[in-house]
Every structure is written in C-alpha cells, then in structure tokens.
Amino acid sequence: MQNEVSIYSEGNGSDMKVAVIHFSLNFVGGGEKLCLTTISALKNAGHSVTLVTVEKTDWNAVQKSFATYTLPDKEWYLFSAKLSKRLSNPVLAITLFAGYLFEHVFLKMSGKFNVTISTFGDLIYSMVDVAYVHFPLKASGTFSQILPITDASKWRFQSKLYNLGLMIINQIPARIMLVNSTFIKQIVADSLKTDAHVVSPPVDVNYFLHSDKNHNRKDKIVTLSGYSPKRHIERVPIIASYSKHGQFVIIGKTDEYSFTTIQNLKAIIERYRLEGRVELLFNVPRLKLREALSEAKICLHPVPYEHFGTAIIESMASGCIPIVHKSGGPWLDILEQKQGEYGYAYETLEEASEYIDLLLREEDLRKKTALRAVERSRKYDTSIFAKKIARIVEIVYELKRGKKKHESL
Predict the structure, then answer these.
(1) Which pLDDT belongs to residue 2?
(2) Residues 248/359, Cβ–Cβ less than 8 Å
(3) In terms of CB atoms within 10 Å, which of 169, 193, 239, 361 comes out highest?
C-alpha cells in the first residue's frame, strides 16, 4: 500500500485482525453508513480493524453526514486526493477500479488479516472472506441502475470489459456473500450464480423515533432521494399533478451529476403549474431532515427496483407512511408484500396519487397504519445489524480455522 495511517496504536489485545475494504467513504451514503457500522461493531467486539479504501477518507465530511461513528485502528489507501469526485473521467475511473482490484489482490496475498470483509462488493465480490453486495454492477443494465458517470450506450461496451475481468477474479470467490434484501438475493442468484444471505442494512431508527408520531402533522408528502438520474424523482411532480391533496417536498443531496436532474424537475414543475405544491430542498442537515419527517404524513418513494430503501425505514420510524413502487426491496422486504399493513405499493403513478389522497382523506386509517409502520421500523435498527455482522465475522474465523463445518448464519 502506498499510504498507511495509524489512527490508534497497535496491540489493543483484540481477538483478531480484520480488514474492512470499501471503495471510498467520501460518498457518505447508505453504503458508507454500513461500512462505518461494521467497523464499530467489530471494534466493540474487541477486534483490531484496518479500513482499506482507494482514496483517503475525508473524516470531516463523514462527521457532517453521520451523527456518530467509530474510527478504525488503521487506515490504508492508495491516493491522498479525493479522486472519486471526478469519476466521469474514464481514465480516472479505470485507474480507481484497478486500484480497488489491486487492494483485493494485496489483501488476499498478504495474509496479514484473520478475516477480510468487503462492505462494497458491488464492483468486486471476490478474493475476500465476506462480501456485502448492495446491488451487483453486473445486473445494472437489466434494472436501470446505470452509474451516473456513464450512460446505457457506453455501458453496453464497458460492461463487456468489466465482465471479462470478473471471469478471472471470480476464480477466488468470497467465502460468504451478504446482500441487503431478498430482492438482491434473487438478482445475485440469477446474475452471479451465487447463493447469498440476507442481512438488512443498519438504520438509525432511534434517531428518528418521536413520541408525537400522529399529532400536529401537516398534509405533506416527503421524498428522500439524491438528485440523480437513476432515482427517477421526476415522477414526484407528475404524481403530485394527479393528486388532489397535499404539499410535496423532495429532500436530497446534490453532486456534480445533479444539474440536469434538477433542471428537468423544475421544467416538469413549471409544465404542470405546481410551483406552489412541489418544493425542492438540497443538502438538508440531518436535524432538519428529522424535523421535516416529523411533521409529514407520507413518504413517497419513486424508485422502481430499489435495492432496499434505508430512507423508507427512516421515514417509517418518524411516523410517515411509505408509498413505494411495487417492486424491489421496499415491496418484498420492508412491506412484506402486505398492501396497507405498513404502507402501500403502486404500479402506476395514478395509483400512487390515489393512495396519497386516501391517506390524507382518512385520518383514522392514516394513524393506525403509521403506528404499525413505526413498530415495523424497529426491526432494522443499527444495533441488530451490528450484532449480526460481528457474529458472521466470528463464524468465518472459525470456518477458516476448521472449527466449524457449516456456514450457518
């Protein structure tokens, strides 16, 4: 490795040395939350943890995005500059991918760690002991999950090169593969021909829980989403145009790929004359986000084939009723395919507007559904994930030492 930063001194008496590899923490999204929670869980279990990334972590940015986190004992990285912000440059993107691949090979060959775990197995899910896959890049074209740094026409060519590389490195598969939902479990089975175990991602449920869950709320419908083309948030104002009631608010982060998405949204809002009913909020602080959810009644999630939906769980914990597309993890895992039990799922945009109008019209129905949604959200609290991931690492360690014969989780 080119750089190695010792954050804490060695020799803390830990049970084992664990390497946690993640492409970059500088995206500060759900995947990065999972990585940080993994580090915290393993350190709390008494293990020494080394974080491996392609670029140096901006811990100030991490602090702004996450209320609490635990630093690793060591940090390894290849590049000091924040190169991930320029992934639209194809040469740079290939360089970073090659660096990520090199780190996997290095970890496999070094033998320095008792257990290696990747918390971003979307790109590379081999050559580690445990790989957590949010959404396999190999299946991105099939489910309209193309990265914003490219487009469908370019990806058809790029994916051939990527799949060729996978054929080589997949000769050393992960001992255990984890996924965030039964939806992704099926995709992994179909596209990667691999069985996986479902471990739901961590959500700060307690942070969003409120004692006043069903009082003093406004007829507001909140959408939590990054301003990215693949999030399909242009559907929100169209749904608003069909709906007879409510104020719609889109809250999300922006990046260098957001400009076109925001311009398209504004054009649609103007076309449907929704300037007074649809509001766009950018890069809202976490406290303000919690306040916005606490006064809303509904969380509208427009993404089809969503991997899981951490924002949906946050809104449920806040007392909002989720209205999601009838596909992917939100429908299969979060709502358990139970229409009206914890929320509602729609197939058409008109149907989504009908559920919104129903809930804003029927207050007793809304309150009862919201209470069930809050209770459902508790299943996904961060503490539950932390216990599972710590236990899985222990199981892998026992398997490698020959003290366990079955990979039962």
Answers:
(1) 43
(2) no
(3) 239
